[in-house]
Amino acid sequence: DGGITQSPKYLFRKEGQNVTLSCEQNLNHDAMYWYRQDPGQGLRLIYYSQIVNDFQKGDIAEGYSVSREKKESFPLTVTSAQKNPTAFYLCASSIDLRGRGSLEAFFGQGTRLTVV
Amino acid sequence: DQQVKQNSPSLSVQEGRISILNCDYTNSMFDYFLWYKKYPAEGPTFLISISSIKDKNEDGRFTVFLNKSAKHLSLHIVPSQPGDSAVYFCAATFFYFGNEKLTFGTGTRLTIIP
Asked: Disulfide check for B47: which of A33, A105, B35, B39 has CB 3.0–4.6 Å away?
């Protein structure tokens, strides 16, 4: 069945190490997103991609990098330059159903990253 | 610059009563709005959406109202049930301009009191 898969659900890394979070979707959605959730801060956009081989910075892109080599995949790398990497990371994808006048957007289950 | 605002961080409602969650936006170019529900340690799940060509959309117990002149939308849940206890996020996008970037509010924690 179709959906968005984020793996792993929990991830621990040592300070100073880069880490890559996986996000795969089989919904045939064009757009994909990465958000970060911190307590009391809502969902803040890190990066988004509307098409393969293209992506744009969101509101808090510093210390992160992404790639979009395939429609199904949008991995996020948290680099050592990210000052406060410990957070809950959410991946989403969406499809523009302009013919139906609607937009559908779905989220994965999230990855909790803890940097020690 | 918070373009989508949910000014009430929390709300408590008696079971069976109406829950009203509010959302304000500042960018008049937003033309499509979505509401999501989120449980702890899980991804948000889609509830209901509305485009700027409508002022109301209804789906079962959930109704979203859009007031474009006030740049305000609200989610009504009637009747409220214990399973509705969660954090609710509103989101906005530039749908008709071809940009699907979703901008979220900070969320409102809804607690349904049995």
From this structure: B35
